[in-house]
Amino acid sequence: MSKVRLSFLLPLLAFGILALVGAVALYATLSGSRDPAQLPSVLVNKSAPRTNLASLMPNDAGDNMVQLAAFRGQPLLVNFFASWCAPCRAEAAALEMLSKRVAIMGIAYKDRGEDTNSFLAQYGNPFRAIGMDTDGRMGIEWGVYGVPETYLLDANGVVKLRHAGPLTRGVIDTTIIPALEALGS
Amino acid sequence: MSLNRTRHLMLVSILPLGLLLASFLPNTIVTTAANAITAEEMLANPQLEERARNLSKQLRCLVCQNQSIDDSDADLARDLRREVRSQIAAGDSDDAIIDQLRQKYGDYVLLNPPLDPATMFLWLAPFAFIMLGGVIVLVARRQRGIEDVNELDASERAKIEKLLASRNDRDEPKT
Q1: What letter would DSSP give residue B24?
Q2: Which of B104, B116, B110 is closest to B55 using CA atoms?
């Protein structure tokens, strides 16, 4: 009798394990802690790529380049955005709020200067500096696969966090703010 | 029964082998979609262009995720094709180009994931499941075999004799 049960129990057990794995994955997806659309970034815990871009807003000294290295010594958010990107409009208010707490450098991804300017005029400008990545080359350096994408760098220019997609209230509360606090900002 | 079981064992052991061999078949069968490449993207040198096409087929479009950059019309796919071609034109080897993209986008950019500890389960799972299935079938078979050879004991025998006898009695035509 107990032997007969084994052949019945074994497939049931195998199915049970599979169902459990599936249920855990489904729960994680539905509860928002696992997002299958979020690709892992290889940049996390590595130095950000050397970034030197033409500036959208040349300063009075006539310096028309934006350099990432100039922001060393403080935590920094780097935000890839574009005027043609709808989610970028959605996150504009969130960036505005974050800009009071941390320096933000913008990288206008495959955008024309005049379009970027009218976007900023309409949705506000939370950026300390804006670099123009006209052909998307710098985006490839950073591993960007869509805008908006946001990176948090520590004072040494090491990437601590990458978020693909718009910064929502939830994302800011659960990931950005804790990461900023961990950097002492 | 023993013949049946040997045959079965053979089947269970041959199946994974067949699947293993099948996995080495060129995967060109799967990707027959029209490629997204445009004429002005192509390199003038047909040999270099061939290399570029070959590389694009191995690289994942990170926006569409289940297409190669060779197949995809996405903007990023076009940018990556251009990147691959500019590096080929600069004289980089295929391995160096793939390696560069892997440093930016991770192993995810490869359509064929490499065998490493993180993907071990993915690669081995099919074989593990087939073996598990084989074990289940074997266990089930063996038990059925055991049931088959169960002999009736003396009391069961007597019971049946009695039943048969009473049945014979009843069926006998009355005279």
Answers
A1: T
A2: B110
Given its phi and psi angles, is residue A124 left (phi above 0), alpha (psi -120 to 50 degrees) or beta? left
Check if the beta carbon of residue A56 is closer than 8 Å to that of residue A116: yes
CA dihedral A121, A125, A130, A133 (to 10 degrees): -60
Q: How many CA atoms lie within 13 A of B165 on its CB side?
A: 6
pTM of the complete model beyond 0.90: no
Cross-strand pairs, A25: none
Q: Are B31 and B74 in contact (CB under 8 A)?
A: no
Q: What angle do CA B108, A49, A107 make, to 5 degrees?
A: 95
Cβ within 8 Å, pair A42-B135 = no
Q: Test B106 with A42 for CB contact under 8 angstroms.
A: yes
Render pLDDT for A68-122 as a digit per residue (tens, 0 to 9): 999 999 999 999 999 999 999 999 999 999 999 999 999 999 999 999 999 999 9
Give which of A144, A132, A75 is closest to A107, Cα–Cα. A132
Closest CA to A111 of A142, A80, A90, A141: A80
Least Cα separation, residue A60 to chain B (angstroms)? 34
Look at residue B28 and tell me whether its pLDDT is greater than 80: no
| ipTM rounded to 2 decimals | 0.78
Provide the residue type at A139 as one letter.
G
The token duo for A5 is 């049960």
